[in-house]
Specification:
The structure is a single chain. The protein is of the alpha+beta class. The chain folds into 3 domains: 1-48, CAT RNA-binding domain (Transcription Regulation, Sacy, Chain A), CATH 2.30.24; 50-163, PTS-regulatory domain, PRD (Orthogonal Bundle), CATH 1.10.1790.10; 170-279, PRD domain (PTS-regulatory domain, PRD), CATH 1.10.1790.10. It has 11 helices and 4 strands; from the N terminus they run E-E-E-E-H-H-H-H-H-H-H-H-H-H-H. The protein has helices spanning 53-65, 68-83, 91-108, 118-124, 126-143, 148-163, 170-190, 199-217, 226-235, 237-254, 260-279, and strands at residues 5-8, 11-15, 21-25, 46-48. A 4-stranded antiparallel beta sheet has the order 1-2-3-4, with helices on one face. Strand 1 (5-8) and strand 2 (11-15) form a beta hairpin. The chain starts with a strand and ends with a helix. This is PRD domain-containing protein. Residues 54-169, 170-280 form the PRD domain.
Length: 281
């Protein structure tokens, strides 16, 4: 393996077996090295291979100017998210490496940012927030800087943005506001209290996360299950009354018409919530 370029003392770029550029890190792997020299493979600790060549180049530019340890922490976040079944994209390596570096620099300068969405992130994005806390723990262990719970929530926001394949962080606030509104409608319409530790509730919230993103992207499902929908509506009139309430609110507030498929999925989730409510003592 030959070195394509040296990023810093502990990070270089080489080619994998498919001739794609990859970033490899390890203690001293780039020390006094130059382009074209052979890479000491025994020094490699971690390899980062991004699917997009453009994303790979962007990440290389960041690693050239910041410590590769922040890329290592971002890599742990990506691995943890994927192990939890979260479908994050490779851009997360870029945004998190840059964000963690900026957050550490701010804290070292005595500047701490408050995250006004911290409570909502903890409530609606439990897995992402837990991974954010893990990342904060790694930063503390490696740098001695405690970023705190506000930064755990910011990291969680980056994870959610990556899941939604959306580059605009502000959309997370809009999505969360819509999720809150839908939950309020369901709570008042059916006069129930959610059991937030229940599987049904967690599935419902996960569905709302991606459903709400489609509302703002105006990317509706195609209507493919009309026959099943008609049968389930006839069998579950009570749950469907909640679907109508939500659909009317979204139509009025966001000028978005729910497709049959979207109404069907909402109906299924609401039926689970109501069935679970009846089974509890």
């Amino acid at each position: 393996m030959k070195i394509i370029r040296v990023l810093n003392t502990n990070a270089v770029v080489t080619l994998d077996k498919d001739r794609r550029e990859v970033i490899v890190t390890g203690p001293g792997i780039g020390f006094q090295k130059k382009k074209g020299e052979q890479l000491a493979e025994e020094l490699i600790d971690k390899t980062y291979c991004l699917r997009s060549g453009e994303d790979s180049r962007r990440l290389q530019q960041i690693v050239q100017s910041v410590s590769e340890q922040y890329l290592g922490i971002a890599g742990r976040v990506v691995d943890a998210a994927r192990n939890e079944g979260l479908k994050v994209n490779d851009v997360l390596y870029i945004t998190l490496t840059d964000h963690i570096n900026s957050a550490v620099e701010r804290l070292r300068s005595g500047i701490a940012l408050k995250n006004m969405m911290k409570m909502d992130m903890r409530r609606f994005y439990e897995k992402e927030y837990a991974i954010g806390q893990m990342a904060v723990g790694r930063v503390l262990e490696e740098t001695g800087i405690d970023l705190g719970d506000d930064e755990a929530a910011f990291i969680a926001m980056h994870i959610v943005t990556s899941e939604l394949d959306n580059s605009k962080m502000m959309d997370i606030q809009k999505i969360t506001e819509l999720m809150n509104a839908i939950l309020q409608i369901v709570r008042f319409h059916f006069k129930i209290e959610f059991h937030e530790d229940s599987v049904s509730y967690q599935r419902f919230v996960t569905h709302l996360k991606f459903f709400s993103a489609r509302v703002f992207d105006h990317g509706a499902y195609q209507d493919s299950m009309k026959e099943i929908y008609q049968v389930l509506v006839a069998q579950n009139e009570e749950a469907y009354s909640g679907v109508r309430k939500v659909a009317d609110f979204i139509k009025k507030q966001y000028s978005y018409t729910l497709s049959v498929d979207e109404q069907l999925y909402l109906l299924i989730h609401l039926k689970r919530i109501l069935d679970e409510e009846r089974e509890l003592p």
